[in-house]
Every structure is written in C-alpha cells, then in structure tokens.
Amino acid sequence: MQMQQIVAFPTFMKGCLGVVACLVLPLLYAAPPVPFEISYNASYDNFEAEASRYLRYDAETSTYWLQAEISLDLLGQTLASVIEESQVRWDADHPVPLIYQYRQEGLNTRSRSLVFDHLTHTANF
Prior knowledge:
Layout: H1 9-28, E1 36-44, E2 47-58, E3 63-74, E4 77-91, E5 94-106, E6 110-117, E7 122-124
Antiparallel strand pairs: 1-2, 2-3, 3-4, 4-5, 5-6, 6-7
C-alpha cells in the first residue's frame, strides 16, 4: 500500500483563518473618517476648470460634512457649476446618512435634495 502525504488540516486551516481575518475583520469595525480638503485647477485654451472636495467634522453636532464642487469657465464666465453636499453621523462603526443636496447652476439650473428620517425609515426627495 502506498502512503500519500496530505497537508495537515490544522495547518491548512491556520493559513485560511489568517487570510479570512485579514479580509473580514476590517469590515467588522471601521474607524471614523479623517477630515481632509483638496482642490484642483485645470486650463486649456480659454477654458478653466476648478474642483474641490472636503470632509469636515462638526463636533457640536457630531456630524461630518462632505462637499464636492466643480465649475467650468469659458473666457472668465461660468458655464456650469455643480455642488454636492452630504451630511452623515458616524454611528459606532458605520456612516448614517442624514442629508444629501445637489445644486447645478449655469447653462442648466436645478437642485435636488434627500433628507433621511431614520425613525420612520424613509428618505424624502
């Protein structure tokens, strides 16, 4: 009878558990986001574009504000601009959305907003 060597199950499981721990544990606990601010500028011929994004924390209300803004100018006149804002509360290990707003101005003007009501499990558009 010929014997075959098989990798010991406990050794194999130790390796798998390590991989699973590295992949799953970060999903079970997420740290609150770190505030930041960044901006970009670009130009080509008579076109200019500006974009910015920031995340700020308001300690008084324990909420985070995320804003993204972009504008496109031609010969110094704004053709279009878009501003998106979100307000979230960090609850234990995940974000809880509170408000989302979208504003577009320039060639086309429109705005949208969502307000989340977690007591009634609804979002008002």
